[in-house]
Amino acid sequence: MSHDLAVAGGGILLIAVALILVGRALVRRGAGPLVTRKVPHALCGLFAAGAAFQLSNGAVVAGVLAVATVALAFIVERGLVPVPGVFDGTRSRDYGLVGFAAGALVAVLAFWPDRVAIAAGVAVLGLADAGAALIGDRLGRHRVEAGGGVRSLEGSVAFVAIAFAVSFVFCRVGLELNSFMAVAVSLFVAVTTAAVELLVWPAADNLLITPWVALLLHVARDLSTDDALRWLAAAVFGCAIVPFMLRMRWLDLPGALCGGLIAGIAVGLGGWAWIIPAAVFFSLTSLLTAYRRPSRSEGMRTLSQVAVNAGLPVLTPVIGFAFTRDPAWYAVSIGGIAAGIADSWASEIGRFSRRDPVSLRTRSRVAKGTSGAVSPLGSAATVVGASAVGGFGALFGGLTMVPVGLAAGIIGSLVDTLIGASVEARFVCTACGATVEDRLHCGSPTQPSWGWRWVDNDVVNAFANGAGMAAGLVVFQLLR
User: Fold this and answer.
1) Distance separating the N- and C-terminal Cα atoms of the chain
2) Alpha helices of 140-275 — where are they, by DSSP H?
3) Residue 193 Cα to chain centre, angstroms
4) For the chain, which residues make up each domain, given as ranges?
5) Of 68, 108, 318, 326, whose CB neighbour count within 10 A is largest?
6) What residues form the membrane-spanning segments (predicted)?
């Protein structure tokens, strides 16, 4: 332990000194803030990757990283920046290095003593993220607004190339995979990680990329050739469906990229059974949404909607399945999908009802599409949608999926309706006077009317889908 403390403490000190020296040298040469932030960022990745192979006590490593995370957060929050540009970069408060340390901490807690996986994670983050930012800033022409920031497609291509190269080295040298398997794993790592970097909030990528890459390389240790082939197909499939969803106008660009990411990960880590139910019912729901709409773009779903309604019920369970191989995770996924589909079908089919729905809050009839309202047709659609998801899931997970889907769909739809009727935020449009659920209407900001302001439709759907996932697990365990 004393050796690990000395190495870890010396490593942190070395990194700090290197950051200061490199930062000062870059500032003297007139480098811009992006360069003075990203070059030390890349050096951090290299130092941390090397340190992973010099340490043997996971508790010491986790403790040092926890202290470093807190210290960096204090430095950034207080503005105690020894070299302008190293910590603050291009934003007033840049938590990139905080996320870097926190992400490494998560990877250590989850995967220690798999040093190859952890080192690969920090190396990909340090080198690919820095390279993508610098190349995107210099050569970027095609901008993408997603995740609260603006990235470039050129930078994302650079990220894929660098992440592939780094992952390939670790797969060949560290995991000792053959060339084909190393290519398949590296391509899957590069494509999915680039999508994560493109879609999440600035600085959040530093938190997520290291544990994500570590997870994939940790799983790759036990891959068969057939598994590697599926990872390769998953990467291609995830990329291929993005233009299809854009052409169908089902999703905007960030939403389509998120959909491709979810599809690729589901197929890679779980298999085709994990994405087929979600894909089939998402397609049917999108067609229902587009039917009788004045404009095809009116029903397009956004990044946040895709993340809540597909990411939550698909990604979370499939990652759990990759860890444990427990079939209960498939029931969790079917439960979440059933909850989302049951509620969506209730809304989309319920609007064809001849009579307006009844609000659970006021007990009076309200306009169609109002949250927290029910109608006989919409309620019937809930049961049909939930049963359909359960029946489809039974093709892959056994007949137990039928009651799983039915129960989860009904419970999730009920939770959605109750939250929508009680605390979901409502706003009044200052232009037309309509009561809406959006913060923007008629091209201008709306005014709060009632409800909790942070509980928007995405939050309601997240609670409903979570309830469906929990119900799916409970029903599956009872019938197991």
Assistant:
1) 45
2) 153-169, 179-199, 204-220, 225-247, 253-269
3) 10
4) 2-223, 338-479
5) 108
6) 6-27, 39-55, 61-83, 95-112, 118-136, 157-175, 181-201, 231-250, 262-291, 303-323, 329-352, 373-396
